[in-house]
Write a structure and sequence with these properties.
mainly alpha; transmembrane helix
Length: 477
Amino acid sequence: MLFNSYEFIFVFLPIVFFVYFYLNSKRLTVGAKGFLVFASLFFYSWWNVVYLPLILSSMLFNYVIGNSLAFDNKRGINKGFSKNTILTFGIVCNLALLGYFKYADFFILNLNLVTDIQVEPLNLLLPLAISFFTFQQIAYLVDSYRDETKEYDFLNYALFVTFFPQLIAGPIVHHKEMMPQFASKWNLVKNYRNIALGLFIFSLGLFKKVVIADTFAEWATNGFDRAVTLNLVEAWATSLSYTFQLYFDFSGYTDMAIGIALLFNIKLPINFNSPYKALDIQDFWRRWHITLSRFLRDYIYIPLGGNRKGNFRTYVNLMATFVIGGLWHGAGWTFVFWGFLHGVALCIHRVWQSIGFRLPKVIAWFITFNFVNIAWIFFRAKEWDDAVKVLSSMFSLDNVNFYTYKISSLLVSINGNDKTLGLSVFAFILVLYFNNSMYYYNNNFDKNRKSSLLTSFLLSYAVIEVHRVSVFLYFNF
């Protein structure tokens, strides 16, 4: 089930909201939690019920491992096994599950390329959200190992993993961020300010997705997947279209997740903070997909040694972290190369900082944004040839005639007019000069007539466009 679908907006969400708070009003707190878990699993199963046993088995396994890590090594099920052994076992099993479904065919195809062995691909369908709920549960195991988290109630743990606003594509949350909120008695009753703010942020996210991102998606698809050749202007239009599509698609999803969670009085962590305003690549990763950046830092970069073992080791750790981050996004060498590019950029930035050089803000922004834009080409391209087609055309003057309407032919084939070009300018203005949704999330929202009218406009306009339902990009990762 998609957030941007009529059945979710007008059926699923209202029913879950009213039943959850009705059960709480009758002091049936356990029943309300159980209903929310059931609703979340129903939400997950709507996509493909075949994979419901997979997420249930994963939850049960990690619940048992997490509890075993919380006990003293000298007692209970830990007897004879060290905490290091149990944690390693838990992480390996989680990664094996993820590896089997996400990377088995990638491994087979590459094995076939370098050897004479010809193994048939498994052609596995990637289970929805497996990357997100796997990383979230690995973080839970590590937190349990560090005695930062204890959970002895399976219902609570199931709610932590399956809470439907963040189940499919994050944010990646910690147990200690979520469960105290569900336990708070103040969160068991309807909060009308949270409802108003939640509806506003949800409407903003829905507008981002169905009005802005999906419009850019048509142009990006035309340039990457349909066009045989591109001229310079068309290539830049294609790359910028995907750069904006990805931003408004994923930040739109995150806004919707945050808004829906607020309806239930739950505050999810901030996941985006105007990343295209970044003045350097480190700043970009502090703003883009913040919970994933946090995970990579806390559970990969720091355990590898972080910056504690000298400059060379720091650069190796940065490269390893971002190559892994690239591979997490997808089983393909283009994703690995995208991660490699960001790793190199961060190493260069670190050297630049150590020398003490500073660039004027406008130049720093220009370099950062264009690097991110160019790197996204490899993230988007289905094949190396697609990336080369777009990238080479971005720096070629062949077939460019600024006095013709060649660029218009690309636009007309999509929308019948040149509105997409205007939307690109509009997108730049939005991401660079306007407050983002988190400005309102952080206590800058007033529940008044103006905000009500804006919410109504955004929601109404977006709902009209929901008929062209499209899957969120991060569902693929």
